[in-house]
Amino acid sequence: MCSDWLGLRYPPPPATMASQLRLRSALALVTGAGSGIGRAISVRLAKEGAAVAACDLDGAAAQDTVQLLGGSGSEAGAPRGKHAAFQADVSQAPAARRLLEQVQACFSRPPSVVVSCAGITRDKFLLHMSEEDWDRVIAVNLKGTFLVTQAAAQALVSSGSRGSIINISSIIGKVGNIGQANYASSKAGVIGLTQTAARELGRHGIRCNSVLPGFITTPMTQKMPEKVKDKEVFSCNCLVEAGRCLMLPHHCLASC
Ligand SMILES: CCCCCCCCCCCCCC(=O)CC(=O)SCCNC(=O)CCNC(=O)[C@H](O)C(C)(C)COP(=O)(O)OP(=O)(O)OC[C@H]1O[C@@H](n2cnc3c(N)ncnc32)[C@H](O)[C@@H]1OP(=O)(O)O
Ligand SMILES: NC(=O)C1=CN([C@@H]2O[C@H](COP(=O)(O)OP(=O)(O)OC[C@H]3O[C@@H](n4cnc5c(N)ncnc54)[C@H](O)[C@@H]3O)[C@@H](O)[C@H]2O)C=CC1
């Protein structure tokens, strides 16, 4: 029986799939939970029985996600239901530390599932990319993932708890993309960070994996020019899943 990237046994025994909530004892922290993939992950984790700490730079959006979860959770620190919303800028070290403190104060334990999903793009051609555009994307996507991974791992290790850390990279972190030198570098960094964390934290019972999604229509992708979205590499669904890395068949790469 293998586990998928959420640590769920896969395939679940059919008889229990409907009745058994496979994450019923888990507390899951999801950053970037106010939109897109982070919101979808929060919904799925809650469906599997987890209590969800939904964090976002946009605190109101995080609360909207909590409302979606059916919990009556509300502002940080006072969950009326099983879930709670938190506001934090993960790129700031004090905020990341405070986030883990707030989550532990709210739920009286560290999160056993930690999904770093918060991310941004500031797309520009390399020739025109500003230092600020570079710095901000690296700060949120890479440093933010480092800060949350570190704070969560410190909480788990000091409490002697096992856990699963899942960092959202992107296929772009493996193949690069026009207009995304900053984003591709940040996502490639997430892969290396996660591989290192896996080597260091395994002895503490903490599993670390990165996921490299392909194109998923969300508010992030809405910023792309339509003429780019119309290109085959974005519209075709020929991304092949092999293991945890999506690979682009040769004809896709050849078309760029
Ligand atoms: C083929 C190799 C594989 C590539 C990667 C595989 C992709 C598979 C899907 C996975 C997607 C994962 C996405 C993800 O992780 C989340 C995101 O990052 S969503 C955002 C993705 N961003 C982009 O792809 C960049 C899109 N481009 C832009 O935003 C603008 O073009 C840019 C700001 C870079 C430049 O704007 P501007 O100066 O105004 O120039 P134009 O827009 O007119 O573009 C000039 C010219 O270049 C072509 N072009 C631009 N970007 C891309 C691109 N990403 N791929 C291919 N071609 C691109 C554009 O079409 C124009 O071509 P013309 O023929 O001159 O019109
Ligand atoms: N949509 C796609 O095609 C793909 C997305 N990804 C990655 O998946 C993750 C989620 O992306 P989407 O849902 O598409 O984007 P999105 O823009 O819909 O959601 C990103 C969320 O992160 C939050 N956020 C941004 N900066 C933050 C910060 N400093 N601190 C805390 N929260 C912050 C935003 O407020 C937003 O709610 C990102 O890391 C992205 O790079 C990876 C591959 C493909």
UniProtKB/TrEMBL annotation:
A Gene Ontology biological process term: estrogen biosynthetic process
GO molecular function, one term: estradiol 17-beta-dehydrogenase [NAD(P)+] activity
Gene Ontology terms: cellular component: mitochondrial matrix
UniProt keyword annotations, A-Z: Fatty acid biosynthesis, Fatty acid metabolism, Lipid biosynthesis, Lipid metabolism, Mitochondrion, NAD, Oxidoreductase, Phosphoprotein, Steroid biosynthesis
Annotated EC: 1.1.1.239, 1.1.1.62, 1.1.1.n12
Pathway the protein contributes to: Steroid biosynthesis; estrogen biosynthesis; Lipid metabolism; fatty acid biosynthesis; Lipid metabolism; mitochondrial fatty acid beta-oxidation
Catalytically driven reaction(s): 17beta-hydroxy-5alpha-androstan-3-one + NAD(+) = 5alpha-androstan-3,17-dione + NADH + H(+); a (3R)-3-hydroxyacyl-CoA + NAD(+) = a 3-oxoacyl-CoA + NADH + H(+); testosterone + NAD(+) = androst-4-ene-3,17-dione + NADH + H(+); 17beta-estradiol + NAD(+) = estrone + NADH + H(+)
Subcellular location: Mitochondrion matrix
Stored InterPro entries: KR_dom, NAD(P)-bd_dom_sf, Sc_DH/Rdtase_CS, SDR_fam
Domain Ketoreductase: 26-219
Source species, domain of life: Eukaryota
Pfam families: adh_short
Gene3D superfamilies xrefs: NAD(P)-binding Rossmann-like Domain
The family this protein is said to belong to: Belongs to the short-chain dehydrogenases/reductases (SDR) family.
Subunit structure and binding partners: Heterotetramer with CBR4; contains two molecules of HSD17B8 and CBR4.
Protein name: (3R)-3-hydroxyacyl-CoA dehydrogenase
